[in-house]
Protein: Histidinol-phosphate aminotransferase
Amino acid sequence: MSRIPEVEAALRPDLRGRTAYGAPQLDVAVQLNTNESSYPVPGEVIADALDRLRTDLEGLNRYPDREFSSLRAALADYLAMQSGVRLSPAQLWAGNGSNEVLQHLVQAFGGPGRTAIGFTPAYSMHPIIAETLGTRWVDGQRHAESFDLDVDSAAEQVRACDPDLVLLCSPNNPTGTALPFAAIETVLAAAPRAIVVVDEAYAEFARPGTRSALELLGDHHRLVVTRTMSKAFTLAGARLGYLAAHPDLVDALRLVRLPYHLSTPTQAVAEVALRHAPALLATVDAIKAERDRLVEELAAMGLRPVPSDANFVLFGGLADAAETWEALLAAGVLVRDIGIPGHLRVTAGTPEETSRFLEAMGDLVPEHL
Ligand code: PMP
Structure:
C-alpha cells in the first residue's frame, strides 16, 4: 500500500516503506491458515461466561482490576496442573494475546540501542515487535533443510551478538518442532546478561516427553516463558496471552503497560475458561491426531512434512508454493504461505477439514511437486 506523502514523510524513518503484518482473513469454507482451533467454545463455558458477564457488565462504569489478581492466581493454578510447576501469582503476567506480553517484554528490555536475536524461521512477529520498538534485530539461523536449531550453533550465534534479549520459540512456529531442553540452558549461559524468552504458544500440543521451560524458572531469573489461550484453549477471539517469570521481572513490566490494559470482560472470560480448562482442552488430543495424520499422509504423497509438536504442519517439496496456495484456495481450503520456498503451513483442524485439505492436496500432486 502506498501512503500519501504527508503521512509517509511524518512517519518514523525506520517505519517508512514497511507493510503491516497479517495473514489474509478470507471467507473460505476450510480455514487452516492461522493455527486457531476449529472447535467452537463448549456451551457450558458460554453459559458460565454469560452468568459472570451479567454481573461484571453492571460494573463497567469502573476500571478493571489493574493488577488482574484473580486471573493471575487462576493462571498459576492452571500451569501447576498442566506442567507440574507451581508458581506464585506474582510470577504471572497477562496481556491482550501473547503478542502484547511479548511487546511488554521488548518495551521493558529492548528498545533503541539494544539488540534482540531469534532463529529464523520462527514466529514472524518476534522481529516485527522488536524492530517497531527500535530494537536491533539479529536474524539468527536454523539448519537450512531440517530447520533444527543446533545447540552449539545457537550458543555461538548468541555469543557473537551479545544480545539484550533472546527470543526462542518452542514448539517453533512455523516449523512445528520443540527445542531440545538443553538448548535453553545453553543459550542462557551464552547470553549472560540477556532476558531469554521461550515462546510456548503451542505447549499443550507437544509430543510426550517434551519438557516446558517453566521447569527452569526456579534456577534462572532472566528466563521468561510466554503462553496463550488462543490455541489449545480455543479462545483466539478472547485475546488472552500470559507469561511466567521471576516476580521482579514481572514487576518491571508494570513500568511499560498501559493502565487497565486488560478489560473487565477479558478478565472474566479468561477466568471462566480457566475454571473449565479440562472441557476446553478436551479437543487437544483430537487435534494432535489430525496433525499426525497430516504428517503421515503428506509424506505418503511424496511431500516433505516436518514432524510437529504443535497444531500445524509445515511441509516442503512443492515446485511453487504460491501456486499451490492459490490452487488450494480455489478448492476452498485456506492455508499459509509463510515465504519459505517450496513450503506451506497447514493447521490441523477437525477430521472433516483435514480430509478436505488432504483431498485437495491429493488432487494437486504430482503436478505441484
Ligand atoms: N507466539 C506464537 C509462536 C504464535 O504462533 C502466535 C500466534 N500465531 C502468538 C505467539 C500470538 O498469539 P496470541 O497473541 O493470539 O496469543
Summary: Residues 178 and 210 are 7 Å apart (CA to CA). The chain has a mean pLDDT of 96. The first helix runs from residue 5 to 10. The radius of gyration is 21 Å.
